[in-house]
Amino acid sequence: MYSNFVSSIDGVATLGEGTSAGSTISGKYAADRFLMALLRACADAVVLGAGTLRATPGHLWTPAHVFPQHADSFAGLRRSLGRSPEPRLVVITAQGAVDAAHVAIQHGALIFTTRRGADACRHQVPESCEVVVMGDGEEVDLGAVIHELRNRNLGVLLTEGGPHLMGELIELGLLDEAFLTVSPVVAGRADEKRLGMVEGVELLPKRGVWSRLLSARRHGEYLFLRYGLRT
Fold first, then answer.
1. Where are the domains of the chain?
2. What is the mean pLDDT of the chain?
3. CB 7 within 8 A of CB 180
4. Which of 42, 48, 100, 145 is the S-S candidate for 52 at Cβ 3.0 to 4.6 Å?
5. pLDDT of residue 162
6. Of 36, 38, 42, 47, whose CA–CA distance to 82 is shortest?
7. CA-CA distance, 165 to 85, in Å (whole number)?
């Protein structure tokens, strides 16, 4: 399980509702989009929360969508890795709050939710989607989700957020590696709530999650960092 985020130098990773934060913060920088496509090309599935889905209308979580000029190369890489033609989209939503008209949902997704959430969305999403009930509680058990995905031979997982999903994955010790692009932009904060890469859990000072820097690369004014989170 690995993640991919882009952040401003002042730690902002999300913008307002309905804003494509990643492309805005990165400035659609070609090297960042290449990395995003490469990480998707290596994954069996891309995992995200319903909030990220809503904030990114018109997006498909495929390599070709963000770097179409090398679509054939990414397809060849997937074949060489024994992957399906495209990574499976996995959406986590406790309430079943999924935009059924979103192009990615129309394209097809696995939707993991609670029994109440399934009742809310099952008859709205297209037949290209499968709604998977993960218990009768109020929250979705991420550990159980990952176990189910691996039972479906989806063992290499990429998450692109959002921050609440990242926080839960890190808190539960489920995230192996984190890829972070630091964009040379200052985003700022005022009245609107803007989140960093992790939200919803408080780790320091009692139990900070210390990582290992696996690689650091520079392209132009951008930094591309890779961290290992497993001890």
1. 2-187+197-228
2. 94
3. yes
4. 48
5. 87
6. 42
7. 26
pLDDT digits (tens, 9 = 90+) for 176-190: 999 999 999 999 999
Tokens coding 115: 């029994």
> Which CATH architecture group holds 2-187+197-228?
3-Layer(aba) Sandwich (3.40)
Count the alpha carbons within 13 Å of 14 in the hemisphere toward its beta carbon. 23
Phi, psi of 131 (to 5 degrees): -95, 120
CA 146, 113, 21, 105: dihedral to nearest 10 degrees? 100
The rounded distance, in Å, linking the Cα atoms of 231 and 223 is 24
Distance from CA of residue 25 to its chain's centroid? Answer: 16
Answer yes or no: pTM beyond 0.90: yes
For 49, 136, 171, the CA distances from 167, given in Å and listed in that order, are: 12, 22, 6
Is-contact 51 93, C-beta < 8 A? no
3-state secondary structure of 180: strand
- The CA-CA-CA angle for residues 18, 166, 81, to 5°, reads 100
**Tokens at 149, concatenated:** 């995905």
Q: What is the 8-class DSSP label of residue 19? A: -
Using one digit for the tens of pLDDT, what is the confidence trace for 192-207? 889 999 999 999 999 8
| Cα–Cα distance measured from residue 196 to residue 218, given in angstroms and rounded to the nearest whole number | 21
Treating both helix axes as pointing N-terminal to C-terminal, what angle do 30-41 and 71-80 enclose, rounded to 10 degrees? 30
